[in-house]
Amino acid sequence: MKVVSNLSTLIAFARIGHLWILEKEIGELTVSEAVYYDLGIKGAGKPGSKEMKEANWIKKEKVKGTETVERLRSRLHAGESEAIVLAKEIGAEFVILDDEEARKVAEAEGLKVVGGLALLVRGKAKGWIKTVKPLLEQLKGQGFFIGKELYRAILQEAGEL
Q1: What does the pLDDT look like over 20-56, one tens digit per residue?
Q2: What InterPro entries does UniProt report for this protein, alphabetically (predicted)?
C-alpha cells in the first residue's frame, strides 16, 4: 500500500506513543523531503524526530513537481504541499492530512484523504487498541486540535458514544 503523510499526524502519534499504529495499518509510509527535514533535521529532539529517522518503514522521497508545490504554497505549508504532490506522483492509495484546508486542496487534486484520527478508529476495529477516547484526550492534552463535532463523530464511529 502506498501512503504519504504530512507532519502533524507523525508528531501527534509520536507524542502519545502510538506511532506504531501507522506502521501496523500502512506497512510503509512515504514522506516528502520537506516533511523529513522539518521533523528529522529542524525538529531534532522533538517528538517524532528520532522515531522517524530510525523507522525503516518510513521512506523519504523527493518531489519532482516543484512547480505544483509552489502553486499550492500560496494556500498551504511546504510539508502539506509536498505531501499532496508526492501522493499524486507515486499514485498513493491515500494521503494523511489533518488540516482542513490541506484536505480540501488534496481532494480537489483528486486524492483520497484520511485523517490521523480515522487511523485510530481503524486501529480499534482491528483490535490493536481498546478505546479511542483516552487517545483523543491525550492528543488534545498535547495541543492537537480536535473540534467538538469531529471529537463526537470519531467517538461515534468508534462505537464509544
Answers
A1: 999 999 989 999 988 888 776 777 777 777 777 788 8
A2: PIN-like_prokaryotic (IPR021799)
How high is the pLDDT of residue 122? 94
Instruction: Report the alpha-carbon distance of residue 68 to residue 85 in Å, rounded.
Output: 7
- The structure's pTM equals 0.89
Query: Would you say residue 136 has pLDDT above 90?
Result: yes
Domain residue extents for the chain: 3-116, 118-157
Report d(CA 147, CA 29) in Å as an integer: 27
- Residue 156: CA count within 13 A, CB half-sphere: 6
- Mapping DSSP to helix (H, G, I), strand (E, B) and coil, where does residue 57 land? coil
155: CB partners within 8 A, 6+ apart: 132, 133, 136, 161
3-state secondary structure of 61: strand
Which pLDDT band holds residue 7 (cuts at 50, 70, 90)? confident
CA–CA gap between residue 93 and residue 132 (Å, rounded): 24
**What is the DSSP-derived secondary structure letter of residue 40?**
I
3-116: which CATH architecture? 3-Layer(aba) Sandwich (3.40)
For residues 100, 102, 106, 111, the Cα torsion angle rounded to the nearest 10 degrees is -60
